[in-house]
């Protein structure tokens, strides 16, 4: 089978056209540059583990077949060198000599193989005269021809690593993973953290379920939803902003310890700690409280740190250490505000007084509780570096939360702050359907006043609650933010393929 260079490549960069021409030539000569299978016998890791102790110049007669991406190459006369890299970044040197593979084969290698290609070689395992573990090839074959050249990365004279621009790293994460070990490591760290969280819940006898991504009503959080249209039902649907109301339905149904790790979608801004599409962990435990969920949250985060990094004192990307060990501090939201502004502030403080303390304009539909939360963020929130539970929030801004058992005007809710940002939240859940209906109706008034993030009244959820929901504690934590806390990276680095604005828009 043969084909010609795509006409669309006529104006392409020279390297792309040259590589496309090589592909065409290979096909015309009967060589498939993308074979379906190769006689691989060993991975690069297996070769390094088994033969890593060879002395310089030592040779074996053991034949192995390995494959990897060509990341370094040096062609010199009758002896060529290449370095193959596997998906984890492990590398192995390959040597191709005219004596071992033949003059014609070596000539074809020089003509056909470029940096970035996937290459298969079979040959003896040896150690070079310089002590480099190598394969002395007797045969080779292209495993996949790369039509585009790899991006250039290098170390400047001052020792600075020159790599991909941040925008390129995010838009073309596959390139980032090819050239930057930290990008590949983040994928593995993320997977290991998710596995640790699941193990924690399974060991605690929680059941993992999946709840709808498409919902007829958006609920469970205060956020703007994404909307879509379902042709089959001719109805408007929403991408979920939270799984909460369906997980609570499961608790009503008798699944008394339940959790979910899955995607949420919020039609809001994107910055270093917010993404419109993100992964959320939510869990609910019958007969638990927000105190129960505080203990569980601390335990699961500390377990994840131990499982993935071997310690509860993690090293961040800037080289500093962050201590997640031991018990964590708890503070009261209103007490923290009072200390920050030098004046007592309570749930009964009038809205106008809170606005004066904030000293900035706020939307008219913000109630006193919402203003108090904004005041907290401005004066305290971003200063909470060590893990800190901020407890007991305003009632009028927490419509799904049980009223505090001893403090009027507040609810049993905490937010967990780490390194100055909010990581998780938990409630003693509101389970009285009559009070819940009243809270939803109050939210409807807030929405009518202009709050696009206000919750809607969900009759189906209220009906479920009317069958009796046991007392429960519930918690939610952004997985992407947990990775931020454990690694020190921004949210777009912790999400493997983050949503980014199109270049042509």
From TrEMBL:
GO biological process: lysyl-tRNA aminoacylation
Binding site for Mg(2+) 2: 422
UniProt cofactor(s): Mg(2+)
Main localization, broad class: cytoplasm
Reaction(s) catalysed by this chain's protein: tRNA(Lys) + L-lysine + ATP = L-lysyl-tRNA(Lys) + AMP + diphosphate
Sequence positions that bind Mg(2+) 1: 415, 422
GO molecular function terms noted in the UniProt entry: ATP binding; lysine-tRNA ligase activity; magnesium ion binding; tRNA binding
Entry-linked CDD domains: LysRS_N
Family, per entry: Belongs to the class-II aminoacyl-tRNA synthetase family.
Subunit structure: Homodimer.
Name used for this protein in its record: Lysine--tRNA ligase
Lineage: Bacteria, Bacillati, Actinomycetota, Actinomycetes, Actinomycetales
Protein's gene: lysS
């Amino acid at each position: 089978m043969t084909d010609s260079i795509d006409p669309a490549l006529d104006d392409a960069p020279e390297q792309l056209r040259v590589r496309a021409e090589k592909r065409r030539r290979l096909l015309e000569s009967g060589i498939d540059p993308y074979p379906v299978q190769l006689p691989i016998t060993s991975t690069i890791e297996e070769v390094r583990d088994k033969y890593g102790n060879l002395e310089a110049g030592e040779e074996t007669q053991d034949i192995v077949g390995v494959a990897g991406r060509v990341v370094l190459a040096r062609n010199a006369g009758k002896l060529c060198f290449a370095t193959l890299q596997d998906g984890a970044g492990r590398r192995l040197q390959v040597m191709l000599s005219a004596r071992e593979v033949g003059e014609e084969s070596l000539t074809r290698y020089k003509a056909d193989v470029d940096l970035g290609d996937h290459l298969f070689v079979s040959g003896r395992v040896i150690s070079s005269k310089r002590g480099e573990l190598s394969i002395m090839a007797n045969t080779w074959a292209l495993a996949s021809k790369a039509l585009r050249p790899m991006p250039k990365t290098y170390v400047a004279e001052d020792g600075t690593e020159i790599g991909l621009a941040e925008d390129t790293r995010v838009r073309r994460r596959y390139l980032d993973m090819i050239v930057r070990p930290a990008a590949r490591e983040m994928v593995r760290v993320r997977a290991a953290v998710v596995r640790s969280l699941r193990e924690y819940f399974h060991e605690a006898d929680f059941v993992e379920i999946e709840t709808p991504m498409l919902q007829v009503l958006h609920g469970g959080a205060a956020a703007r939803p994404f909307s879509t249209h379902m042709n089959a039902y001719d109805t408007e649907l929403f991408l979920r902003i939270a799984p909460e109301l369906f997980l609570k339905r499961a608790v009503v149904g008798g699944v008394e310890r339940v959790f979910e790790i899955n995607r949420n979608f919020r039609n809001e801004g994107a910055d270093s700690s917010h993404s419109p599409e993100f992964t959320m962990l939510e869990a609910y435990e019958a007969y638990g409280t927000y105190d129960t969920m505080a203990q569980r949250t601390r335990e699961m985060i500390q377990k994840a740190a131990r499982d993935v990094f071997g310690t509860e004192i993690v090293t961040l990307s800037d080289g500093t250490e962050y201590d997640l060990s031991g018990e964590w501090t708890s503070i009261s939201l209103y007490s923290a505000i009072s200390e920050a502004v030098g004046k007592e502030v309570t749930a009964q403080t009038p809205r106008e007084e809170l606005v004066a303390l904030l000293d900035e304009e706020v939307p008219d539909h913000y109630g006193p509780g919402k203003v108090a939360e904004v005041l907290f963020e401005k004066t305290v929130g971003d200063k909470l570096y060590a893990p800190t539970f901020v407890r007991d929030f305003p009632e009028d801004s927490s419509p799904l939360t049980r009223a505090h058992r001893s403090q009027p005007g507040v609810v049993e809710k905490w937010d967990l702050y780490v390194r100055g940002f909010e990581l998780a939240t938990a409630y003693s859940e509101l389970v009285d359907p009559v009070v819940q209906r009243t809270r939803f109706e109050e939210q409807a008034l807030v929405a009518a006043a202009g709050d696009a993030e206000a919750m809607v009244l969900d009759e189906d959820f209220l009906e479920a609650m009317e069958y009796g929901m046991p007392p429960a504690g519930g918690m939610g934590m952004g997985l992407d933010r947990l990775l931020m806390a454990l690694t020190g990276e921004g949210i777009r680095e912790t999400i493997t393929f983050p949503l980014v604005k199109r270049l042509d828009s």
